[in-house]
Each structure stands twice: as C-alpha cells, then as structure tokens.
Amino acid sequence: MTNLNTAQKSPERQTEQIQSLITPFQTLKALPNPFSRSQCVSHKHELLICGGYQQRACYSYNTIKNEYKFICEYPIHIKLNGHCVVKLVDNNSKDRNEITLLSFGGKYKHTLIMKYVSIWSNENNNNENKINDSKELNKSSNYNKWTPFKDNHNRSVIIGRKSDNYEGVRAVIGGINSHLLFITYYPKNISVFDLNTFQFIKYDKLPTNNLICYHCFVSNSENGQGQEMIKTNNKKNKQNYQMLLFCFKTGLSIEYDEESNTFQFYQLPVCDGIVSLFRYAYVCINDVILFFGGCNGDNIISNSVHKYSIQESKWITFKNNLPIQLENCVAILSEDNTNIHFIGGQDDKNTVLSIHMQTRLRVWDNPQSVIIKITIQYWIRFLKIKLGWIDEFNKIIINY
Q1: Which domain of life is it from (predicted)?
Q2: I need a surface site. Which of 99, 146, 365, 389 has the fewest CB within 10 A?
Q3: Candidate from 149-163, 225-239, 274-288, 325-339 with smallest mean pLDDT
Q4: Strands, E assignment, 248-347
Q5: What is the pLDDT of residue 323?
Q6: What span, in angstroms and rounded, lies between the C-alpha atoms of 251 and 81?
Q7: How do the domains of the chain map onto residue ranges?
Q8: 16-51 exposure pattern, b = at least 16 Cβ within 10 A, e = fewer
C-alpha cells in the first residue's frame, strides 16, 4: 500500500494514491518462496506457514516485525499435495509458548507432528513470552521439526485408510476434551478420528451429489476461534458439535452427537457467485464466513469476495474484489482477530506466487464506513491539516 505521508507531485500520482487508499488490501513483505496450497496456523504474533504444493519449507512470519524466519523442512521423503495442518489442544500443557501441530493427508498421505516453540523468543523483551536459554537448549532436539505421529506404544500412526483420497482434505478439532479430529474429504466423505485412542470411531457419507475437495470446512464457533467448536445442549443434555461445509453447489450444517456417535445434516443455501467455485481462501469469525477468490471446474479463476452470515443464513457479494485473480491461496486470521492474511496462491496464468497480503477484518464488517474513514485520513494528510482528529468525527461524517 502507498505510504500515506508521501508528498503528491502530480494529478496522476494523486489518483494512484487515492486508489491505493480505497483498496482494502495491503501488500506485505513477499514470502521467502512461492507457495500454493499451503497451510497456515496462527500463534500469538506469528503465522506459521507449513509447506505447500511441492514446497517442503516451513516459516514463521512475525506480524509485528513484518519478517520471516525459517523453521524447518518436511522430511525429504514427504510429498505435499493438498495436505492439512491443525493446531492440537493440550489441556495438560502449562507452557503457553508451546503448541503442537498435526500435519496429515494430501495426495500422498503422511501423518506428522511438530512441537513448536517460538523461534522469535530470544528477540522478545516480553518476560511472559521469554523462554530461558537452558530450557530451549534442552528442547532443541525435539522441537521445531516434523516427527512421526506415534501412539502410546510408540508405534507410528497414519491417519487415513489406503483407499481414502485425502488430496484437498479439510479438518477441525472438537469433542468435549478437544480430542476429536473431524475430517472431510473426496469424494463426499466425513470421518471422526479419536486423538486419544488413535482410532477412527466414525465414517459417514455427506448428503450431496457434488464432489468435496479443497473446500470450506469450519466449526460453528460463538467465540470466533476457528479451531474450537461450540457445545449445545438439547433436551436430553447431549452435547452436540456443529460444523459448516461449502463446496461447489453444496452447503451443509453438520451436527455431531458425541454420546451417540451420530451425524445430522442440514442443507444450507449457496449463492450464485460462489456456487461453481472451490480452491478459495476462507476464514470464519463470529457469525460470518468470508470467501476470497477460487476457481471453477473450467479453471476460470475468480477475484470475488463473498460473505455468509451463519445466523441469518444469507449471502453478500462485495463490490470490492481481490486485487488479482487468485486460487489455492490460504487465508488466516491474526490471533487478535483484527487482520486477515493471505499467503501465496496461483494467479490466472497458473503462476505460483510469493505474495503476502492482509486486510482489516472490520472492512468486511462495515465496508462503507471504513472506506469513508480511509478517505478522511487521506484528506487530512493531503491538505496537511494539523489537528487532533478523533473517531467521533468519523461517526458524525458517516451519519451525514
């Protein structure tokens, strides 16, 4: 995005700056490598980029420093093509600086875990986030690298049967103890894997006539945290976990009863603008799911942006589009839920990109007011007005 403090030298330059101010997307420092079909997890002020199509490298992006650090590579024998990475919940862990990542699936199935400790810790002056040198030294051989996923008897576990096609697989964590891995995959399958027993406890078919692959699959969470599922009590006090799935013409609300180990499915509307799309970037926050780009069955790539309201079960297609046509990009919310980051992807020329963009979440909550606010900020700087502008002034102008 253009620097707002840059002096204007020509009408053409002024026009360029106005356009850059109005666009809701900001270009950040380019990725160290081009990434497509990547997976990304947020951790405090970091975004962990975990490989991509034919790309084994993993990086941490520091959202404060706008810098990257290399973490590790997937083992040399691992071929990534449509894999999935989720953040596991460890209710027994007392170290908030540690997280455990589970990587699995893809066309060539693998199942690996990484115990991650921030590689930025030594540069962080915040005592809460510091890890002392001796502790890091002791962990160095076991942390920040992909290792086989093993059961309680130290036997390697592969998630998925030989017959399962896990390319473009999607998964979320749920269960009363956050111990269940819900997996949706090609052609129209859903299964439940118990992370405590290391066994599948449920297989089922999704009620759709369309194929499911590189799709949207999220938990229906009241608090906006994509990895946590809400718990609802029905008349018999059974706890149910709710998920949403979209792909092509398919829209489903999925409810799982943990006590009876059964699914219930409900059809959801799909808007015309997204009905033919998959391979889009998406995020779920509070009551909405946002969809960015994607492609259709004819490999025509989109730059459209759509919003689905879960509570109202309604769709909105935005006038603001992505700055480029984009597919196989991953979108991730910053942990404070203020920004949406876009990592890599492919453009309409099938070029794998090293682009990294972000947009403010509030833009898509109330886009008209935000554009007005940005324009006001431009006027102030352009006219070199020196005054104390406060948010209340913006509210007054928006009202009139």
Answers
A1: Eukaryota
A2: 389
A3: 225-239
A4: 250-257, 262-267, 281-285, 288-295, 301-309, 314-317, 330-333, 339-343
A5: 95
A6: 25
A7: 27-224+239-368, 369-399
A8: ebbebbebbbeebeebebbbbbbbbbbbbbbbbbbb
Please confirm whether the linkage preceding 187 is cis (ω < 30° from 0). Answer: yes
Place of tokens 């008209």: 368
* Kind and range of the H or E run holding 190: strand 189-194
Q: Which residue has the tokens 């666009």?
A: 23
Quick one: which of 229, 210, 239 has its CA closest to 284? 229
- Gap between the Cα atoms of 60 and 197, Å rounded: 31
Query: Is residue 381's pLDDT more than 80?
Result: no
Burial 256-294 (b: 16+ CB within 10 A, else e): bebeeeebebeebebbebbbbbbbbbbbbbeebbbbbbb
Q: Which of 164-168, 220-224, 233-237, 387-391 is the most confident on average?
A: 164-168
3-state secondary structure at position 221: coil
User: Is residue 110 within a helix (H) or strand (E), and if so which, with residue range?
Assistant: strand 110-117
Q: Which residue carries 């990592």 as its tokens?
A: 343
CB atoms within 10 A of CB 114: 22
Burial label, 178 (beta-carbon count in 10 A; 0-12, 13-18, 19+): middle
CATH topology of domain 27-224+239-368: Neuraminidase (2.120.10)
Q: How many CB atoms lie within 10 A of CB 147?
A: 13
